[in-house]
Amino acid sequence: MTEKILKYDGSFKGFLTCIFTAYEQKLKIIQILPQAEDQEQLFTGTHNIITEEQKAQRVLKALKSKASVNGIKKIKYAFLSEAQDIEIKLYEMIRYIFSEKEKVELDYSHSAVLYISKIAKQVAREKHRMEAFVRFRLTKDKIYFAIIEPDFNVLPIINPHFKKRYADQKWLIYDIKRKLGVYYDLSKMEYVSIALPEDIGFSGANSEYFEVGEIYYQKLWKEYFDCTNIKNRVNMRLHVQQVPKRYWKYLSEKSPFA
User: Fold this and answer.
1) Could you say which of 20, 103, 114, 123 would form a disulfide bridge with 55 (CB–CB 3.0 to 4.6 Å)?
2) Rounded CA gap, 220 and 75, in Å?
């Protein structure tokens, strides 16, 4: 069996195409890497994989016959973690799933299954916190705009929440860490990449970019928060547990510029 490093376009469908290729060509996979990552191996061949929808769907269909809906979700969430070597860990778990007659997605005695389960849980937690803490600001173009910088690539899995909740408004959520956003125009969502001004900020409302009413609202909300917050009764330890400090930058009441 030939040893190979597979390189793909970084998409989930591209990763599934890698799985299909590994089985089809009977390859011994020692690593699966996005094209952006460069890792030279002196004695191992590198195989560039071109994403193919049909092959990806065949792998996904096979997975659905061997794992539960929750098991498939764990695989997708873990993939979005962008963790070091996540592809090879997922490959090990998928090989194990395909090799057994019974469903083994909950067999935590298998190291890859345990690892994927743990990291998928972290991604799910980040997803819920993004949905809770993201704050939109109304731009002069009448678009509700939010900046995020999540640890994991949760943008693809938070979109349905915001589409359902803000179906009657145009909005744009932009992940500055990955330089990619999702724009909703009242009928469809599409991915966009734009150059943002450095002073646009996570919260607060710069008059150069945002509606006057939005600026007033941001200041009013911060004043309300400051007035209703009884400082001598603040339990900061509990507060940080419920709202970790790395999410404060999204909140108007925490912004020094509101």
Assistant:
1) 20
2) 43
Q: Are 73 and 67 in contact (CB under 8 A)?
A: no
Name the token pair of 115. 């690892």
Per-residue model confidence (pLDDT) at position 55: 98
Half-sphere exposure of 88 (CA within 13 A, CB side): 12
**CB distance 9 to 56 below 8 Å:** no
pLDDT digits (tens, 9 = 90+) for 60-71: 999 999 999 999
User: Which pairing describes strands 137-138 and 180-184: parallel, antiparallel, or unpaired?
Assistant: unpaired
What pLDDT was estimated at residue 45? 78
- Rounded to two decimals, the pTM is 0.86
Q: Can you tell me whether residue 221 is helix, strand or coil?
A: helix
Please write down the long-range contacts of 35-44, taking CB distance under 8 Å and 24 or more positions apart.
35/7, 35/8, 35/9, 35/10, 36/10, 39/5, 41/5, 44/3, 44/4, 44/5
